[in-house]
Amino acid sequence: MFEAHFQTFEEPEGGVALTARLSAFREELTRRKLAGFVVPRADQQQNEYVAPSEERLAWLTGFTGSAGLAIVLSQTAAVFVDGRYTLQAAKQVDSKAWEIQPLVDPPPESWLTKHLKPGDRLGFDPWLHTTAAAERLAAACAKAGAELVPVDTNPVDAVWPERPPPPLGPVSVHGTPFAGEAEAEKLTRIRPEIEKLGAEALVLSDSHAVAWTFNIRGADVSHTPLPLSYALVPKDGRPTVFIDHRKLSNSARDHLEQTADVREPEALVSKLTELSRSGASIALDSATAADALSRLITAAGGKPVRGSDPVTLLKAVKNPTEIKGTQTAHRRDAVALARFLAWIDREAPSGALTEIDAVEALETFRRDTGALKDVSFPTIAGTGPNGAIVHYRVTRKTNRRIAPGDLLLIDSGAQYEDGTTDVTRTIAIGEPTAEMRDRFTRVLRGHIAIARAVFPDGTTGAQIDTLARQFLWQAGIDFEHGTGHGVGSYLSVHEGPARISKLGTTPLKRGMILSNEPGYYKTDAFGIRIENLELVVGIDIPGAEKPVNAFETLTLAPIDRRLVDLNMLTGDELSWLNDYHDRVRHAVRAHLDEVTKVWLDAATAPLSL
């Protein structure tokens, strides 16, 4: 009945084959006179999702998380992962061959200084590290009396015989009915920003920035409609887009050529070299530009100007067309979510369903809209103890039956041409415990505090992050992830620069879309997260002395009333929940069959103290 087209549940390979790969890799390093090598989980543009041809870390170590790094030395090797992936790495990586170390505190560089010997040559691929990352590695090497050596070709590729070819996803035009602004208008807004940077030209090293600027989308990586590409935008004159011509139909090429010259990706090196010979200052994005680009510009006599890509902020502030599109996408998504939640409530109490059944059903309900392009990330469906793994991804091996007494945490999203969605609901299967209801209500109160927040212009995500945590802190508990991330417009579901987190230093601007997703995770027991997407809007406050903003909730899906402890809510919080459910019912009800309407009426019925 249900199936997943955009997700798989296979277990990644591991064990003996990977140990043989590590041996072959060490032999290759010896051949190149290198004492070690750094293998990041990265492509040339630091994308969150990378093409199969770029999964070097997974191929070598077995670790498949989205953030990590490996360092191989002749006598020892380590995989570095952040807190989200500690449990996953322990299961995927052979502990006899690899140490598992933290990615952030302490950083890999401190491990390096302990293990490198004076005179060692540590190799790295300058196309896969930013300049800041390369500088940190070089400093660690210097401290140990070793040397950091850039390589021309990646030694992993030399020992990876079945390495997939680079992707050739077809490019589509994302026209003004969806984009809301023509390419020429966007370039007019970008050029003064290049001037401000004191540069002759700007390299768009982030494919999301190229896609947004030139109104194109692609199919080169999973779950994000990304055309892998670069662009060079001069302060004056025509920009150049560097993209494999095999991805371009005649109409896509015609579209690009209206505002830009189109060249093969290899031409970027010669174009930058030529521009640098005149001593030009060229702006690079510190977050995504490969160290190789800085080296190339410097070697040719130019001056790399490292900083934030101005397109990142322009892209984050959605225009009226993008806002209208995302509102439409969320209403469409809401129908699929209501059908799914009603189905779970009917079927799960029998104990017959599994996590994979839930993932397949939700994707099917979304495909039934007729507008689904992809899921926006692999669905997280964790029941019982699996729900406590923040970035859990079900495989056939870990697939757990959804049993009465469990909580089911399901975090999912969709890519529609008019907008990107991301929503998490925690569902009680059978009767929840008093502890579950207490923890859920604390998370809900934090969620409501963010949704109801009113804040002056210039406020950052870090300043409001505490609102989501206050009720958890009162019980001596917390969650170990940010409260919210930015979301793109038919682009990445995780979009910078704004976020609601302790690290969120970018001011929130009207038109930005962010997630609101506090949680609580009890190891080996259950997980709770409630996530809606929020649009930053201006509000009118009589007598206000500066512009004031608030959030408009975009996501429309019932929050499980069975998990709410009414005695813990204030009157204002209860009013917010009832008003929200009223909105959900009005937006969705007319589009449902009779059985689901009955379920929705009950799931959104007002609660009273």
Offer a quick outline of the entry.
Residues 550-607 form the Peptidase M24 C-terminal domain. The chain is α+β, with helices and mostly antiparallel strands and 609 residues long. The chain is built from 19 helices and 28 strands.
Entry keywords:
609 residues; alpha+beta; Creatine Amidinohydrolase, Chain A, domain 1; Creatine Amidinohydrolase; 3 domains; six-stranded mixed β-sheet; 19 helices
> How many domains make up the 3D coordinates?
3
How many helices in DSSP terms?
19
Straight-line distance between termini: 41 Å
Weakly predicted, low-confidence segments: none
Widest sheet, order of strands:
4-3-2-1-5-6
Q: What proportion of the residues form beta strands (DSSP E)?
A: 15-25%
Question: What is the class of the largest domain in the CATH system?
Answer: Alpha Beta
Shape: globular
CATH superfamily of the largest domain: Creatinase/methionine aminopeptidase superfamily
- Per the CATH scheme, the topology name of the largest domain is Creatine Amidinohydrolase
The secondary-structure class comes to alpha+beta
Mean pLDDT: 96
Mind telling me the C-alpha Rg?
25 Å
